[in-house]
């Protein structure tokens, strides 16, 4: 089974490293759930899933809860519908944008004039955008318009620089760049809604989580990073994200297969230690753990997971009665926490990261498989 949501550090590929190690069990527990790749692969009939990220857990609860799911489903399909309409919107003004770009490229107008004319073009066509700028959906028409105009202006300026370096673009490449700018503006607007929504707008939980899911799906590299103000600041994924089959992913969320899987799931939103204290575990339970890694940049979440948290986790695992497997990045500190401990075993494997955000992660690193059986 596929995961429902993109998550940094997901363990879809690592599952093959532990598949043959997993013991038989009656109940599956995952304290650091994230995207839940192992959970979806095992398809356990009885599970406890937990994560400290409230929005993520609200998402899974809305997936599971039939009573609350209706409004969430409506809200999420609004994103699908409007995302799919974007190519139709672009057709309304692409010729004008192409003509405008030629004037900008030839030096007939400057960047500020470019922005003013783009704004005029978009505003004239706004009524034809078929619901995109309805307040009920976008919540803030002015901000959406501002972001689309800003991204179109920036992209056109960028295209000029690219053409100076590499030569003239094909019509297809130019179209892809304009589409990316429009989609990026759409994304940036709803990123603003995620960052400021509770402060500025009366936003329901289903709308909030539908918006959260959209941002998670289309942010660059599924990364999760916040600035000093606590605002999510990962950009749109780029041209490669333009053709993603978003509808198919949302259809899967509400499929019979997912409904059946979640029937036997208890969903919690605790610190891992509180979860481990709440439930009584036995040798018939199996825990898979994928905690944040111990590095200088170990988390894309708002909450840091520091050395003290790693020590807390290790102390709980030394004495836990359930069988467990943990995958974690190998550092001297982590290795010392688990090496030569009673009943604890360690295996090693190599991991290559797909994304390297500003050099903060080495792409090729060694990981540990820590287990107790």
How confident is the prediction overall: mean pLDDT?
91
Spans of at least 5 consecutive residues with low confidence: 296-300, 354-362
Strand content: 5-15%
Contiguous helical run count: 14
- Apparent shape: elongated
Helix content: 40-55%
Query: What oligomeric assembly is this protein in?
Result: single chain
Number of strands: 7
Main sheet characteristics: 7 strands, mixed
Distance, first to last CA: 27 Å
Q: Could you tell me the radius of gyration in angstroms?
A: 24 Å
H/E order of the elements? HEHEHHHHHHHHHEHEHEHEE
The structural class is alpha/beta
Main sheet strand line-up: 3-2-1-4-5-7-6
List the helices and strands and how they pair.
Elements: H1 15-18, E1 27-30, H2 37-42, E2 47-50, H3 54-64, H4 66-105, H5 111-125, H6 135-138, H7 141-166, H8 171-200, H9 205-218, H10 246-253, H11 256-262, E3 265-268, H12 272-278, E4 285-289, H13 307-319, E5 323-329, H14 332-338, E6 345-352, E7 364-371
Parallel strand pairs: 1-2, 1-4, 2-3, 4-5
Antiparallel strand pairs: 5-7, 6-7
Helix pairs in contact: 3-9, 4-5, 4-8, 4-9, 5-7, 7-8, 8-9
């Amino acid at each position: 089974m596929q995961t429902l949501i993109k998550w940094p550090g997901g363990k879809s590929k690592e599952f093959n490293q532990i598949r043959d190690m997993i013991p038989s069990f009656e109940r599956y527990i995952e304290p650091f759930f994230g995207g839940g790749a192992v959970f979806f692969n095992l398809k356990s009939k009885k599970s406890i899933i937990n994560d400290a990220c409230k929005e993520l857990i609200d998402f899974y609860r809305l997936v599971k809860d039939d009573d609350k799911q209706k409004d969430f489903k409506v809200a999420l399909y609004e994103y699908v519908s409007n995302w799919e309409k974007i190519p139709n919107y672009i057709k309304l003004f692409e010729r004008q944008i192409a003509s405008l770009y030629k004037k900008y490229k030839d030096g007939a107008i400057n960047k500020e004039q470019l922005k003013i004319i783009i704004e005029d073009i978009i505003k004239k066509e706004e009524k034809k955008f078929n619901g995109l700028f309805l307040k009920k959906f976008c919540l803030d028409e002015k901000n959406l318009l501002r972001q689309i105009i800003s991204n179109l202006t920036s992209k056109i300026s960028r295209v000029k620089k690219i053409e100076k370096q590499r030569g003239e673009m094909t019509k297809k490449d130019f179209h892809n760049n304009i589409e990316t700018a429009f989609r990026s503006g759409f994304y940036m607007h709803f990123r603003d809604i995620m960052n400021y929504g509770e402060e500025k707008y009366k936003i329901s939980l289903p709308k909030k989580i539908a918006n959260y899911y959209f941002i998670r799906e289309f942010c660059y590299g599924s990364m999760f990073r916040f600035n000093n103000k606590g605002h999510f600041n990962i950009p749109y994924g780029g041209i490669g994200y333009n053709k993603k089959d978003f509808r198919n992913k949302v259809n899967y969320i509400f499929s019979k297969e997912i409904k059946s899987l979640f029937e036997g799931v208890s969903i919690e939103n605790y610190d891992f230690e509180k979860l481990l204290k709440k439930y009584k575990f036995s040798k018939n339970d199996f825990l898979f753990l994928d905690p944040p890694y111990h590095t200088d940049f170990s988390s894309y979440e708002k909450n840091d997971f520091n050395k003290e948290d790693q020590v807390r986790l290790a102390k709980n695992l030394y004495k836990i009665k359930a069988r467990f497997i943990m995958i974690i990045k190998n550092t001297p500190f982590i290795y010392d926490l688990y090496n030569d401990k009673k009943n604890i075993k360690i295996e090693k494997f190599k991991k290559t990261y797909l994304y390297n955000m500003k050099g903060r992660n080495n792409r090729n690193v060694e990981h540990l498989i820590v287990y107790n059986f």
